[in-house]
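Q: Got a minute? One more chain.
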Amino acid sequence: MEPVLELIVSTQPGGGPQHVLALATGLRSRGWRPLVAGPRDGALFDRFRESDVEIVEAATRRLSPLTLARLTRLTRRSGVRAVHSHGKGAGLYGRFIARRLGLPAVHTFHGIHYEGYSPPARAAYLALERRLSRWTRVVVNVSRAQEAEGLALGLFTRAQSRVVVNGVDGARLGTTALDRWDARAALGVGAASAVVGCAARFDPVKRLDLLVRACAALPDPAARLVMIGRGPEERGLRALAADLGVASRVVFAGEIPDAARLFPAFDVYAAPSAKEGMPLGVLEAMALGLAVVASDIPAHREVLGPQSGGLVAGSVEALAAALGRVLADADGRGVLGSMNRTRARSEFSLHGMLDGVAAVYREATGL
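A: Always. Here it is, folded:
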């Protein structure tokens, strides 16, 4: 098998690290041996090892000459044929290492996020990405919407870009998922409650504050909101729930690896993000047959389909109205969930994603 270095910026449960875990385990049957390097900052670090994937601890979030030298030695010693980076810090290391060793660099954007930066920092980030693209053989975009944005920003050329949409293993998700009652018991949610759920990084771009406000506005006082994840917004979200008088109705479930196994506890999955690359949590919920209510942004339109009844305007009022409507209509919820399952398993399969990335590696290396 041909070795390839996968550089990541975190091992916390989340779309990017989970994507790399799926690659690292699935690409072996396609002739590639991924070697993963990233920080030991989350539960997925040990999950890589449990999956028999070689992983090396490396502080890839910040640029350090020592880390760069160590990763360069590792890459040379391991006979790596290509360097594949995921995320901002990893992308910097990956392109430097590949250029220094004369290896092909592949970079995946898991969303292009820069809007929260100050104007000078935003300009610097975009300029850096444009520069790094000159050292990159192939740029992988996880959605067509993301490719269009990156092309408009000049972050790569059309000739460099390959769209490989995120994929999920529907069969595995179905096998590992708990039944409805066991999932609710694990989350501490009553069997009779209407439950809105999500799994996300608690980051401003996810707009989870809208979800808290929308659930506070639901007409059913017994409705519950379950949010799986952690992040810098958690303290503010807890304070908001308390201010709105719904702290007892909001469950902060914490960081949970393989969170999708608990999704059967939800009546509806909610995703109010301002922006996404290709949302893994939404795909997993769809593959499990859940109804999804999501903000009407390009990535969600691509995943759910532009005519999906689950797409809503990004406001508290629209989100609350849509959640209330879906929760009140069990038959409609079932139809929407069935459509989601078919779409996820046919158009966003793990098999297709692995084939796409393997093809990128063959193209980049000439093997």
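A: The domain at 170-347 is CATH 3.40.50.2000 (Rossmann fold).
Q: Perfect, thanks.
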